[in-house]
Design goal:
By secondary structure, the chain is of the alpha+beta class. Helix content is 55%, strand content 19%. The protein is built from 6 helices and 4 strands.
Length: 144
């Protein structure tokens, strides 16, 4: 799956320096603060579209969503994460991300990542998801 994701990102992705993205998010989060949910919503829309495009590009039905999330986030340069399958969703632990330094509050800094994950899952799996932060991890659950 790693090779498929690398191929997809090479063909469909846009490579930008992390520092450029970091500074954009840092400045936006500085002014957004409590309104960082706006960034999460925008990231969710972008993530959903990425999930749809990747699903159509992949044309494969035999995959493990946990592996896809871990690999996609790592290979895109967004974050290194550990994903565990839950009964009704996923638990995602952020191991490292350039966005962690974009704001001094963890919950604010990871808003773009939360939105991207939630949206990617919705676009890739065709299901609605909601998320929350619990014990420093992102819990993404399918809306029933």
């Amino acid at each position: 799956m790693e090779e498929k994701i690398k191929e997809f990102l090479k063909e469909e992705g846009l490579v930008l320096p992390k520092e450029l993205i970091f500074e954009a998010y840092k400045e936006t989060l500085k002014f957004a603060g409590a309104l960082s949910g706006i960034l999460q919503a925008g990231s969710k829309r972008a993530g959903k579209r990425a999930g749809e495009i990747f699903r159509n590009w992949l044309k494969q039905t035999n995959f493990e969503t946990t592996e896809i999330l871990e690999t996609f986030l790592r290979e895109s340069g967004v974050a290194k994460v550990k994903v565990l399958k839950l009964e009704n969703g996923f638990s995602i632990k952020i191991i490292d991300s350039f966005l962690l330094k974009a704001h001094d509050k963890f919950e604010v800094a990871i808003r773009p990542i939360i939105g991207a994950i939630e949206g990617f899952l919705e676009g890739f799996e065709g299901k609605a998801y909601t998320s929350k932060i619990k014990n420093g991890e992102i819990i993404v659950e399918e809306k029933l």
